[in-house]
Amino acid sequence: MTAAATDTLRRTPLHDRHTVAGARLVPFAGWEMPIQYPPGIKAEHLEVRRGAGLFDVSHMGQVETSGPDAEAFLQRVLSNDVTRLREGGAQYSLLCREDGGVLDDLFTYRLDRGSFLTVTNAANHARDFAWLAEHAQDFDGLSVRDAAADYSMLALQGPAARVILAGLLEEGEAPVRMRTARARVAGADCLICGTGYTGEDGVELLTEPDDAPALWDALIAAGATPAGLAARDTLRLEACFHLYGHDLSEDRTPIEAGLGWACKLDTDFIGADALRTAGDPADRLVPFAFTGPGIPRQGNPILVEGEPAGVVTSGTLSPCLGSGIGMGYVPAAAASPGTPIEIDVRGRRRTAEVREKPLYRKEH
Amino acid sequence: MAAEQSYPEDLLYHDEHDWARIEGEEGTFGITWFAQDALGEVVFFDPPEVGTTISKDQPYAEVESVKAVSDVVAPMSGEILAVNEALGDEPAAVNDDPYGEGWMVRVRLSDPTERDALLDAAAYEKLVQKS
What we know:
The complex is a heterodimer. Helix content of chain A is about 20%, strand content about 35%.
């Protein structure tokens, strides 16, 4: 079934760990990645909501930007206001084309005054780096380096993540949300980031590839459950986080995608002019939930008042809500929460409703 | 917990990974261990309506896992007498017990001789081992 030439796929340093754990490995953005482990997607998903899941996200790319002009450069290429990113801070932004189309969505960490680490999506990494390198030529005091080979990346997510991490911290402290810290964890020097993609508290750990297997083993031994990319997808969709290639693309602007908060137009980033003159978008990305049976899938038509009006960009069955959920683009007039819509799922009209973000919120 | 791989000898198999249990002029259909394993955790079963006619080799229902949708192909032709309503609440029964609680439809067979085109357990097992 996954007959794509597996010998040409890249493997993370944790590949053996996944095999031993009985993971189902699939091609993903040029990598052979664990999509799920024997407990299955739903069990992994719920474990992240209740305990702690551990994801191998070493396929994600990294770009290091440093030098006196690093801040000015990133301010030009990234949509957010990089001057407001403090040392040890984290910031979400878009990488846009001149016309405002989205090339990628990224987290950037400011390691110190003149040094930044930006994490890219695996499928976009080569294109992102080429784009950054090209625009770096307009700046002098600047080094832009593809650092993807220097890092493995593990995401420890869930309400028990910090307890597990605290038990393995040897030097340093865990960062709070949206902050970073350097620390030694179970013998591995890590950059710990208080970020994630699940809607839960947790951290992402960047470490040298050689140290990744022992770090993985220590986190599992301390109680984290391996979780695959399939659960990562259902978790992020319940939390309404965008996935590039689904909810974001070159054909959509960040404003349409509901990411205007991450676009500071007065910073004059590449794409800001186009977004400024574009006015209010005709379409909006909205989260929705089914009010009856069925599961939406990417590409399903969305009907408003019975007429085709939009398209589903992400869809799944929500393990926490027990219903079909998704995101999709609809005309702005139909974007208000509570608006009844229908999704054409392979010829069957399923009833749904536009919802508030996030689709799932933790009860406190 | 997922079932162990098995292909019971009292069933007949279609090469699209469906099974049929034939009792006189009635048949019970479902998907094989191989099919449910390939699909992963089944989260939704969209059954046909009782009384509709289904045709050999044609899809008659859809089964979905979190990540994928798959047609369920009829191993034989006939009229739907019953659908497994319990799969509406417990679709994972298709994984847990594909030949028992995970049955999908019971059918009045319109041409019982169609069974001659189906595979026995040994032949089907040989087929999936090559996959």
